Amino acid sequence: MSDSPGDNHDLRSNGDDGESLRIRGPIPEELYSFYEDRPFKICTRCGEGLSDFQEGYRVSKIFRGEEVIFEYALCLPCLRSMFEESSEESKAALMRFQMERFRFVTGFDECALCENEREALPTQEYGLVGICFGEGLAESNLICGCCMEAMSECVSEETRKGWDRFVEDNFPGVPADFEPMPLAQC
Ligand SMILES: [Zn+2]
Ligand SMILES: [Zn+2]
Fold first, then answer.
1. What is the pLDDT of residue 178?
2. pTM above 0.85?
3. Which helix H or strand E contains 68, and what residues bound it?
4. 105 CA to centre of own chain
5. Ligand whose nearest atom lies closest to the CA of 58
6. What pLDDT is recorded for position 184?
7. Å from CA of 49 to ligand 2 middle
8. Which of 19, 38, 21 has its CA nearest to residue 30?
9. pLDDT at residue 21, as a whole number
């Protein structure tokens, strides 16, 4: 009777420092799968249905100007295990980088980690990231190409290779110089 997956409003009730993610609205079309022209349905890594994950999932789309270079959705367990597979040093460096730079801005108008605005990036790469629950959006950020690069530089080569493997496995032909995990749960 109360099995409906749609009415779980208490999204992160495990008391992680008091700030739980709330759904702000529907998933914006910019975070839809470009290839399927609808919200992502399955996790790019494990293939499980995303609506089954009450903890939510993360959509990432990398653009160059208006063009989508690639896109993926990761359920939280996959996101976590990719993060866990990173070396301790890389994890610490990433967390530090994000904590130092995160500007507590939300949405797609400006970079969450520096003052670059989207309008100033007409031909450059940038990533759009959204934390979603079912068909709802809880959090969204833009990360400019410079910040993605800076993030990728602060992790070890081994960690970067692990990320590159994810890209190679899932997106043959895509240049692997990208950073797949901006804002691992700030
Ligand atoms: Zn998954
Ligand atoms: Zn930036």
1. 52
2. no
3. strand 67-75
4. 15
5. 1
6. 42
7. 32
8. 38
9. 77
